[in-house]
Design brief:
alpha+beta; Rossmann fold; four-stranded mixed β-sheet; two-stranded antiparallel ribbon; 2 helices; elongated; disordered N terminus
């Protein structure tokens, strides 16, 4: 994952107004086995990053979220973001990934199944929390 630049903007909403976190993608171009016995022929994880990873790699905050949320936690935790706050991109490298099955860019029912060339829709396989965790470890 690559780091995005950060702004030194201060103020309650200045951080959100001055920083954009483009969605990035991690593509696993191999079969992803699911705990329930199914599989995904390939896997895409959409994610956002904020801040810069330090040389030691020990300033990472991984933000997890519910299926219905997007990978921009500034949208849902705005009061916690910015200089001197809990999620301070000037101090930390913050990563938030959309889980598989979400409607925000990670592989889900709206994606094309590469084996059939059609959208998964209701044929999207059952996923578990374990699958979500393993996908995040990929």
């Amino acid at each position: 994952m690559s780091a995005n630049g950060v702004s030194t903007a201060q103020g309650r909403n200045a951080w959100k107004a001055n920083v954009t976190a483009p969605i990035q993608y991690f593509d696993l171009e191999e079969r992803f086995e699911l705990e329930g016995g199914g599989y995904l022929p390939e896997l895409r994880i959409a994610y956002c990053t904020y801040g810069t990873l330090n040389d030691r790699g020990d300033n990472v905050i991984w933000v997890c979220h519910a299926l219905t949320a997007n990978s921009d936690p500034q949208d849902w935790w705005n009061g916690f973001w910015g200089g001197g706050r809990l999620f301070d991109p000037e101090r930390y490298f913050i990563v938030c990934a959309n889980i598989i099955g979400s409607c925000y860019g990670s592989t889900g029912p709206d994606h094309l199944n590469p084996e059939t060339g059609t959208r998964y829709g209701s044929t999207f396989p059952l996923i578990t929390i374990g699958d979500v965790v393993r996908a995040s470890e990929s």
